[in-house]
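Deliverable D5.2: sample structural annotation.
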Amino acid sequence: MIAIPPHSPIAASLVLFSTLTIAACSAGAKPADAPASQPAPSATSEGAAGAPPAQSAPGAENSNLIGNPTGAVLPKDAKPMEATVEIKNTIRWSTASEVENFGYDVYRGDAEEGPFVRLTAKPIPGAGTSDEPHKYSYVDKDIDPTKDYWYYVESVSYAGVRERFTPVQKAKAKQPK
């Protein structure tokens, strides 16, 4: 069971579903029949302990919304909220040190053998010359959640020399076909 209180903002960072839409009371709105001293019921995906949702109250036009399974009557000015969950692949790499490193380009392919396409419009800035460790990442939001992808990172020196920095890494599909 997922509970999302209707009085708090919804923040999500999940990579399993492409879009999740939840309708609930708008911020600050309470069901019309809730006493002022008690909070409004929480939005849930099903009734308590797996039980079916409560029956709708007579005349409750909004009680069939996802996020109002209790059947409470919502005020007429209540507006549905939406939470959109992004599907993405995040490529992470790190260095122990760097010598004359201008930056990194990230490449993606539909197969382990390629062909690969550069995703970065311009290199992700490197640390130049550094004896300290650095962490880097790139977020690929333009993916089909039913496909596997392969990625690698290429380093670019100040002189423009390009070298493959990481091996080819597979990112599995986020959803079945």
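Annotation notes: DSSP finds no helices and ten strands in the chain. The chain has two domains: 1-86, 89-171.
The annotation will be released with the project's public dataset once the embargo ends.
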